[in-house]
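>> received
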Amino acid sequence: MLDAQRELKQVTVLLADLCDSTAQVVQTGAEDGQAYLDTAYRLMAEAVATYGGTRMQWRGDELLALFGAPIAQEDHALRACLAASAMLEAMKAHTTVEAPMRVRIGIDSGEVIAGPGGADLSTPYRVDGPPIHLASRLEKMAAPGTAQVSGNTMQLVGDQIETRLLGKREIRGFSVPVDVHEITVGSQGSAAAPLARRRYLGPLVGRGEAIDDLKAIAERVRAGAFCAVGVRGEAGIGKSRLIAELCTHLRETGFSIAPVTARAYASHVPYGLVADLARVLLRLGSGSSGVDAIHTETAPDQPTDLHTAALTDLLDTGDAGSAWRALSPLQRSERIANTFAWLVRERTRSGPLVLAVDDVFLADRGSLRLLELLARRLQSQPLLVLMSYRQDYVHRWSDAPWFAEHWIGPLPSAQMVKLAQALLGDDESLHSVRAALLDRADGNPFFLEQMVMTLVDGGSLLGPPGAYRCTSGQSPLGVPASIMAVIGARVDRLPAETKASLEAAAIVGEPLLSSVVAAMRNIDEAAAESHLRQAMSGGLIAASASAGAYAFRHGLVQESVAATLTRSRRSQLHRAAFDALRLRSGDKPSENPGVLAHHAYNGEQWLSAAEYAQRAMTRSIARSDNRDALRVFSLGLEAARRVEPEAAMLPCELALRMEALGAQMAVGLFDAIVSNLERAEYITRTLGDTRRQAAVSLQLAVTLWTRGSYRQGLEAAANAGAVALAAGSRSLQMAAMQARMMLNHGLGRYAMAGADAAEVEREFAAELRARRLMPGWAVIASVNVKTFLADTLIWKGELDAAQAACDAAYRELATEDHAFSRVLVDFVQAELLLAQHRPEEAVTLLRSALELCRLHELSNMHPAIVAYLGGAMARSGQALQALALLEPAIAAKVSLSGGRYNEFYFPFNLAIALREAGRMDEALVAAHGACEAAAALEQRGHEARALQLLASIEADAGRAQDAALHAQQALAAARDCGMPGLADEPVPSSHA
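>> returned
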């Protein structure tokens, strides 16, 4: 039974043995000798544990450790080498003349038989295979204080560690000579191997456009701008190579480069990646990697004691001092962030700087948060942050104006042929093997390079790089010595039917249901169940709690199985997955249409992909997941463009574009909205579809409202309403009337806006009861009309009626959990609380609304909430806190992510905060700014409020004549807007 549970694993074995010269130390005394051994054993065990190894067993003073099992590790060979280096360094640090502490180490990588221990259960887990024996032989050959590494391991590690080649060695028990290397002690530096140390087999092909785009961004950095670039793509697609090539170019043109690579084994270390970056930056500055390096700087901004303490703690180079220990964890984090920003600024004094972070998705959470906040601290520095990550990585930089993302996709066939030509050469014998390699690599340059290396190592290809020839007895196409290829080889050993079912499972993803696999393959469910159980016994998948359900044992298993499929086979399986899942769901709305869109797209069922993408967008917008909606929009749009003929493609594209407007509005992508509408208008004209032209005009009206072009928007709304009436579309008529209500509100025509709201509620009561999002809108229709009605009532002075409208809106939301709609109601309710002189309650409500904005990424509402929160805080006696909120937001131009209302909201509320803080001259400037912003946009109601505030501040400042003039102007504007008594009542002050 135990034998049946064993499996093949690709691992790296480390065998370490204390040298014989230590025996005399042990013999000096039982107590001293035991303490010596305990220290040596501890140092060896700690080195293994630090890099995620498994300590298998002690045999006397010999340690056997395993990397890559029981749990697979992508970088098991590198981990083992770094553990060996750390072990040698630790022994060296503890050795003395009287008590030498030295160890010999042997390392080899390869396939072993792994599984539960023997029947006597003396060993819970055991392995057996050639790597164990070769590691033992290498350990015996190594000199004291050295580590010998086999060529097998070096193939996996490449240039990520520094070694010296000892040459080929004849080793007992092995039929062919073994390449042997020795780790260069003390040369590894940071645990994160820099990009600069990587070397590649072939040239960089097919990435010229991406390189040019990144160079253009670098030039903006050279001119003094902070920029960050994310390079996104699947594993092996060439992200690191692209960054390395760019860094080489930038170094030659005057940039300083600080390259690091995040590692999975260090993801638990707080600020581990930041520490690696700090070490590189210190070396850039003075050639020293220690904390003392900061004291050698000649820049005018000298390091403080807190900088020194923070670096000491960050780099773990000694005692940071009692003052540092007295700080709370939050304070330490803030000091580390400040120190890192200071260090970067110091490096940028001498020229532009690049922080190149490979595999940032593996970094620890603290480092990721610090990188996310770096722009706020270094916006004026010539700094470029380059980051690579996989396609499923989620970050928070998307909306930042300083951030750009580059997707790196598979290389086109022509470029892959060019790369294969450079790697292999032109020999006629290569024709068939080149075709097979290209088919299996499927656009992934790393896969192609690794497979070529495997054929060379196996003797199937002879000759120098770029000029190979195939041997006459060519072996079947081998697999690279990597986790991905090993999993593929294991799959190849499964029975054909089991392999086919596992491939189907890899495409459909988790949860793996035998019923879905059966439907995909058109076989009995019992047969599919049998296949999945066979795969489970091979260690590829594991049983789940539910009957007939399974899960991949490791995420790399699914990636590897799917990656070995050709493009045509993958498309076929995606089509099968789409059909099976659609049949299973019966088109129920509870099923995730985004999954169906994904399978339809990858199955090249373009029309279905676009249709389900639209459904997925509708669902995501309803759930306030606007980012997901926009992600699906990109997929759906790409699918729609491939629909043929054009007569079928255009309606499909139009539906997607109209649906996307709601998500774009919620996150404040106004330029994208305009582009979307321009394309939508072209499509409707091409199709001659007047009804949809009305829908486009309606969306244009809403967009013009956000942009502050209210009169132009009224024309568009009137046009949309007329066409909707002629077409008999009640939904479009209702939306047109709501747009008119919003535009009249913007102009300060509160009586007309209130009448519009009342008419909508009277004429479209049935439609409003449905509580639905109108297509392309970000807010529930029934909630929208009640909130705008409440807002108009506030400024007409009818506060009780306004509260009733807000209460009705909240009742609408009692059964509809929609974040954007709730934030809109909260905003108006807060305005009402301020009008009722209840600022403390407004602060509480606005803080809650702000948290919803952050949680759901409601970029459109976020600025207005921030502005009014600042004003409410100032009115409740928290003027300094209000300024601490408002001034950075204004400096960061937060208002740009919302509508044009914010051009009034921010200076208006800033003026209130400045007045409450006693900074009257600045308050006057801000109040004038609010007046000018409102007047420029013809926001007559806002102008009345701004003039009233200006008059109040002038009165407080003793400028009676100016105050009287502006009070008169405020009264006139208030009368124009139907705001009785507003100008006669001063804005409440916390001093009152």
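>> The first helix runs from residue 23 to 26.
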